[in-house]
Specification:
It is a single chain. The protein has 222 residues and is an alpha/beta fold. Helix 2 packs across helix 3 and helix 6 runs antiparallel to helix 7. It is globular. Strand 2, helix 4 and strand 3 form a beta-alpha-beta unit. The protein has eight helices and seven strands. It binds S-adenosylmethionine. The site of S-adenosylmethionine (SAM) has 23 residues, from helix 1.
Length: 222
């Protein structure tokens, strides 16, 4: 899992733009995380699948996935700045992905639209997390699968520090990333028990939560 500093969805536009650009360039340093995840997911889902990334930010996962197979890929992000950055990244990479502006807790898609969805390094920022989970369930096809990858709220400072040191970031980014984890990210991250309570309020038929390093991987089947 990579670093995750957040633009405030309804904050100052200039500040949001600056934070979005910083995030896009910082996470570009760990592009291998996106390409490895895209490679794994592309093996797990059928060609032609309809894929949604909820809160794609700069769209790196969508772009890496689009390079591998012919999927119909959509990204939905609350930040207009990130939607523009993601669309530009897809164009520059020469791939097709549709980036739209909208909220995870009120998605502009009909019920049963997607075969697979991913929400990576973003869930802890959602203002209405239970509504976001319910929306994820609604927009998946019956039998469709959702995956949330995020920080564990009970990761220790030592674990965080070790994780960031292994990310291969430049010195300045390493310092800023550790600061972001300590001052913002851990405070908003959920524990496994909190996730279980929220997921109990959805209609997913099957949920698996696995803990690894400083994060979770949660798989939810509609
Ligand atoms: C840290 S970035 C993660 C981006 C990307 N998933 C990644 O792995 O690089 C978090 C993203 O969540 C988006 N976001 C925050 N609240 C949202 C909401 N309610 N609905 C949709 N996107 C949201 C932000 O605009 C931002 O792009």
């Amino acid at each position: 899992m990579t670093t995750v500093a957040m633009p405030k969805p309804h904050g100052d536009r200039g500040m949001e733009g600056m934070v979005a650009k910083w995030y896009a360039s910082n996470t570009a340093e760990v592009m291998n995380e996106y390409s490895e995840l895209a490679q794994r997911i592309s093996r797990e889902i059928a060609p032609g699948s309809r894929v949604l990334e909820v809160a794609p930010g700069p769209g790196y996962f969508c772009v890496e996935l689009a390079k591998r197979e012919s999927f119909a890929i959509t990204g939905l992000d609350i930040s207009r700045t990130f939607v523009k950055i993601a669309a530009k990244n897809a164009t520059e990479a020469g791939v097709d992905a549709d980036f739209q502006q909208g909220s995870a807790s009120n998605m502009p898609f009909p019920r049963g639209s997607f075969d697979f969805l991913l929400c990576r390094a973003a869930f802890k920022n959602f203002a209405q997390p239970v509504a976001a989970l319910q929306e994820m369930c609604r927009v998946l096809k019956p039998g469709g699968r959702g995956m949330i990858i995020d920080l564990r709220g009970d990761a220790s400072p030592a674990e965080i520090s070790r994780h960031v040191d292994q990310m291969g970031l430049s010195t300045l980014n390493r310092i800023m990333t550790k600061l972001a984890f300590k001052t913002m990210l851990l405070k908003s991250a959920y524990t496994k028990e909190q996730f279980q309570q929220m997921l109990a309020q959805t209609e997913f038929t099957k949920v698996e939560i696995s803990e690894a390093d400083i994060g979770f991987e949660i798989t939810m089947t509609r």
